[in-house]
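Example 9 (inverse folding). The structure is encoded as follows.
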């Protein structure tokens, strides 16, 4: 199916308002319910008809791309800023804490960060920019002696997946519990007192297969 290429700035004022209402409604519902939130609920929340939604976004993936691209862009900026910090451990730990906090607040962001969708290309492109920045940060933290030497950038997605499971499981009973679990994981990354890890990190191909399996 063809994708929409209309620049929002070129829309008539009424059409632009409709688009803004759709995006605002989708942003709220994706954050609360994840990207499985139905387009029927989105149009009802936005106060528009289904035809109006599809005039602006021909597929649901187009809508996901438009709504969550900005959140992923913010994570890219934070990762690149962390990579520039002189204290690499502080940069890495700070990025992870901020990124996990954003994902705890936004279920849709958690879902698109953890899984690959070739039909949401702008989100995928943003996500792919994060790992190289963090790889550089990991290498510097190891050179500075603060991060355990056997940790790899390919281990990072598993950290996010693990905390995501805790976020999901404890959201209704202790919404901030994930912070305790994340702190335990971060302590496990420190060089001091580290014991050798069993096995090897997953390859990029294995990570991709794991993503596609739906965790």
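The amino acid assigned to each position is listed next.
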């Amino acid at each position: 199916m063809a994708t929409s290429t209309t620049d929002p700035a070129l829309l008539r004022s009424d059409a632009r308002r409709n688009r803004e209402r759709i995006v605002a409604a989708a942003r709220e519902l994706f954050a609360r319910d994840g990207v499985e939130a139905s387009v029927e609920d989105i149009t009802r929340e936005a106060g528009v008809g289904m035809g109006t939604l599809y005039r602006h976004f021909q597929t649901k993936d187009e809508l996901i791309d438009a709504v969550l691209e900005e959140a992923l862009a913010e994570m890219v900026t934070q990762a690149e800023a962390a990579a520039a910090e002189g204290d690499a451990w502080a940069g890495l730990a700070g990025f992870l804490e901020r990124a996990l906090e954003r994902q705890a607040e936004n279920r849709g962001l958690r879902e698109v960060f953890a899984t690959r969708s070739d039909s949401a290309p702008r989100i995928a492109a943003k996500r792919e920019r994060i790992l190289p920045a963090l790889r550089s940060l990991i290498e510097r933290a190891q050179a500075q002696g603060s991060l355990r030497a056997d940790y790899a950038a390919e281990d990072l997605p598993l950290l996010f997946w693990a905390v995501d499971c805790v976020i999901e499981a404890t959201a209704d009973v202790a919404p901030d519990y994930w912070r305790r679990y994340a702190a335990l994981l971060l302590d496990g990354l420190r060089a001091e007192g580290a014991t050798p890890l069993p096995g090897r990190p997953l390859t990029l191909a294995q990570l991709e297969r794991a993503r596609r399996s739906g965790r």
